[in-house]
Amino acid sequence: MVVIEPVTSADNHPKPSNSTNVGVDSTVGDRLNTDGAYSGSGDKPTAAGYASDGYETASETEVGDGEAVNDNTDKPNDVVEDEHRLKDQTYEDALNDDELKQKILVQMNDAKVEGNKLFGDGLYEEALLKYDYAIQLAPEMPSSSEIRSICHNNRATCFFKLGKYEDTVKECSKALELNPTYMKALVRRGEAHEKLENYDEAIADMKKILELDPSNHQCRRTIFRLEPLATEKREKMKEEMLGKLKDMGNSILGRFGMSVDNFKAVKDPNTGSYSISFQR
Predict the structure, then answer these.
(1) pTM, entire model
(2) Could you report the per-residue pLDDT of 128-163, keeping only the tens digit for each?
(3) Which of 23, 35, 114, 172 could cysteine-pair with 156, CB 3.0–4.6 Å?
């Protein structure tokens, strides 16, 4: 039996597939090859990385002699390595900075504890130095504000024990700058103000405490006790001021043979205003 094989026609050559497999360039139009030569969509040979039918081949991720391109396009490998090293160094620096801050906080707390022991032994001057040392370890570090506030208040307590009430007020104020709701500092400053007979200032601190703790009955009793003293002091200061003004007036009027006693203030009951009358 004779088998006749069909003659393959030139028109029956396989045509390029239009499949959208991975790696296919979605744009199959004209393009520039890597050498800058024009590559169309016909059967002309193209540069490495592009098939003659417009398909994107695996070699498109290669350049020149086949050297692989890194993910950082247009960046030399040494530049990319430097960037990675910089990122790693930045991360290490951040860790080192956090570790350093933690160590400082531990040192501050240790100094505070030593100061507390000295205070308990009645060594107030020595305790002051320890608290100050703790503060100076990190005077500007935000994370140390709590310990610094406590140390300022402890210094205030030392000064109070030493009878240095003005220094007590200063240290308490520094503690309150760092922590405005620090109750112990408010109490200590109020007590120091009372010792200095600054009754109005002491009452102001007690009222601030009541705002923070309305159930503080001791504070209410303190305000009740201090208000008459504050009123008495204001009246005394008023008399002292009038006495100074009278002395000043007499020194001037004395040149003319007069004194402030020659002038009398008369109040008008209808308007409440005063009129000055001269008397010999």
Answers:
(1) 0.57
(2) 999 999 999 988 889 999 999 999 999 999 999 999
(3) 172
